[in-house]
Amino acid sequence: MKKTIAIILTALLITSFTACGNTGSDNGQTSDSSVSSGNIEVSSDESTDSSGNSKSGESSEKSGQTFEDIFGENSSAPKTDSSTAPSEESSAQNSENKQRHQRFDQSGQMPQMPDQSGQQPPEMPDQSGQMPQMPEQSGQMPQMPEQSGNVSESSAPEFDTTDIFSSRDLTQTADTSSAKTIQASNNKTETITEEGVYIITGTATDFTVRVEASKEAKVQLVLDGLNVTNSDFPVIYVVSADKCFVTTAGTENNISVTGTFRSDGDTNTDAVIFSKDDLVLNGTGTIKINSSANGISGKDDVKITGGTYKITTVKDSIEANDSISVYDGSIEISTQKDGFHSENDDDDTKGYIYIRSGSFKITAKSDAVQATTLLRIDGGTFELNSAEGLEATYVQINDGNISINASDDGINASTKSRSYGTPTIEFNGGNTKIVMGQGDTDAVDANGNIIVNGGTIDITATVSSFDYDGTAQYNGGTIIINGTQVDSIPQSMMGGGRMGGMGGRGNMGGFDRGNMMR
Length: 518
Fold this sequence. Notes:
16-stranded parallel barrel, 9% helix
C-alpha cells in the first residue's frame, strides 16, 4: 500500500512540475506542451489571439503506456527543458518511479488510469491470474467426471422384442391343404427345391430331407410320426432357404444320429437338425432327438414358438450362430456340454438368447444356457442342473421361476462380447432360487456389476453368494441368503465358510455402500 501511495504522489509531482515549466506566457504567443507521467501522456496544442481568447484547442489523453513506450527503452525520466527539470534527487526518484510503474502493484494489477473516453481502461488480470468474467481461480484443475475407481457403470441394453416372431412363426398348425407328402425310406435323400408345405412321415434308417431352395423360399416341414436313425448325417439338412419351419403335427417323432458325422464339402454337418439359414420349430407334437454331437444347430437364427422337445446330446443340444429365441414350448435336455448355446465365431456382437416363456428342464455338464451378448428372460419355468446355470455378457431376468443347482457359478456375467460393455447381472423380477455345491463356487458372479431392482433371489451357498468386480446396486426386491433375508448385497457368502465380507475377500470387497443399501 505504501508503495502504491508513493507512486501516485510522484506522478502528481511530475505532472505539476511539467505543467508549470511548459505553460505559455500571457503575451498571446503559441505554446506547445507535453506532459508525461507514469502511464499518462497529455498533449495540448492551443493558439490564442491577442486578447487572450482561445482560437482553437484540442486535448487528448492516452493510457496504457509505460515510460519505455513514450521515451524509449533506455529513458529514465520525462524529457523536459532545463528551466523546468527537477533536481538530481528528483531525477533519481523518477527513475525509481518508472521502474515501479513498469511492474504490477501489490494487487497484481497495473495502475488504472482514464483513457481518452474518460472511462477506466479494460481491467487487467486480478490476483487469481484470470481475465475478468472468467471463473474464479480455485487452485484446482477443471472438474472432471467423478471417478469411483470401480468398473464403469452399466445400463440395460436396448433390445426390441416386437419383431422377433412373425405371425407364421407363432402359428402352431400348418395349412396342409396343398401339402406334398414324403415317405421316409432307407438310404435315401429327399431333396426339396421349391417353396411349400411338406408332410414327412414313416420309419427309416439313413434317411435325410435336404432343403435346397432359393433365398426367398419359405419351406415348411410337417413331421407326422417320423422315426429315423442315421449313422453319420443329419435327418433334416437345410442348405438354403429364406426360412425353414419344422412343425410337429400332434404326434411323437424320433430322430437320431448315432455315429461320427461326416461333412458335406466344406460344411461340418454336426447336428440331427442342421440349418444354414433361419430355422423355426413349432407345432403341437413332440420331437425326441438323440445325437452323438449336437441336437439342433442353426448357422443363422433359431426360434422355438411351441411344441415339446426331448433332446439328449454329447455336445450342445440347441445351438445357433446369431440368436436363439423362445416364445413358448416344453424343452427337456440332457447334455454333456451346453443346453442352449448362442455364439458367432466371426462376430461377437451376435449371439443373444431371448426367452419369453416356456418350460425348461436342463441337465448339462457345462452351461445350461449360454449366450455371447445378452441373455434375457421374460418368463418361463426353469429347472437347471449344471456346472453353470445362466451365462452371458449381460444377464437380465425380468420374470419367471428359475431354479438352479450349480457346481461352479449359478449365474455368471463375463466379457464374451465387446458390444455390451461391462459384464452385468440384472434382476428386475421373477423368482430365482440358486443352490450351490461345495468348493470354490459363486451363486451370482459378475466380472462387472450386479443390479437388483426387483424379484426374489433365494441363495443357498456354503462359500459365496455374490461376487463382483465392479459395483452392486440394491434398489428393490428381496434377497435371502442361507435362509436369512438381507438388506444389502454382500461381496461373498453369509452363514459360514469363507467370509469374504469379513476379510476373506477384502473388507466387503470395496463396493459402494451408497449403491448397495436399500
